[in-house]
Write a structure and sequence with these properties.
- This protein is mostly beta strands.
- It contains one helix and twelve strands, in the order H-E-E-E-E-E-E-E-E-E-E-E-E.
- The protein is elongated, with a radius of gyration of 31 Å.
């Protein structure tokens, strides 16, 4: 009788060891979970990314894999884009060009932003012109002089050309980080300035940033519209 009991016990143990699936009778993988999986009470490792440096990926069948992340690796996240709706007349003081984009930074996140601006400047006088970015972070406004492009106009234009100017573009990179538990917002603005603007007349629009237009006439967009584009790369 003891031999029969031992045989039955071994048979039951073997079945239990073989059944490694959860929610199925015949698992084909080492662990096959046939339910929604949820992990709770995970530790916050935001300050230990040098140690927790693997990113988990899954395919359409639920197979998991990982990618090793280096200390300086960034992945494209999203883009922000805006164009100028109207030209802006600029003088000798720093003037907002009505180009503004706000970046959203989630808690405990780090990112690099690539900022591109392209602004046409028409009939801007004989001196120098400048375009640069401003940054508003935590209600503190900072002018980013490293983002500035200064330029001059041609000494002579064709007398038949009513739109005399040039297009100015630049790319600037900035690193952003949010070490708080609250969502953070950073706003970038574009500014323009002329050292020797032209004196406006009644029939021609001078010192225009953004696009070419005459007073009382439809906008001529052959020069394009001023634009601001920001690409975000998450860490």
């Amino acid at each position: 009788m003891k031999h029969i009991f031992l045989l039955v016990t071994l048979f039951i143990v073997n079945i239990g060891v073989a059944q490694v699936g959860i929610g199925i009778e015949r698992p084909e993988a080492d662990l096959d979970v046939n339910v929604k999986m949820q992990l709770s009470n995970l530790p916050n490792v935001s300050t230990q990314l040098d140690k927790y440096n693997r990113i988990i990926y899954a395919d359409g069948y639920g197979n998991l894999g990982y990618m090793e992340r280096s200390a300086d690796s960034y992945v494209y996240g999203t883009s922000y884009f805006q164009t100028m709706s109207n030209p802006v007349s600029v003088g000798t003081t720093l003037t907002p060009l009505n180009l503004s984009l706000t970046i959203v930074i989630l808690p405990m996140k780090k990112m690099i932003v690539e900022i591109n601006y392209n602004i046409v400047v028409i009939n801007g006088g004989t001196g120098l012109g400048s375009i640069l970015l401003g940054k508003n972070e935590s209600n503190s406004v900072e002018l980013i002089y490293n983002s500035m492009r200064s330029f001059s106009f041609a000494s002579n234009y064709s007398t038949r050309a009513s739109a005399q100017g040039r297009s100015i573009s630049n790319v600037y990179y900035d690193e952003l980080e949010n070490n708080t538990n609250q969502v953070k917002y950073v706003t970038y603005n574009v500014y323009g300035m002329l050292s020797q603007p032209r004196t406006p007349s009644s029939n021609t629009a001078y010192n225009l940033f953004g696009m070419w237009t005459r007073p009382g006439e439809p906008k001529n967009l052959n020069w394009g519209k001023g634009s601001l584009n920001i690409n975000v790369y998450d860490y």
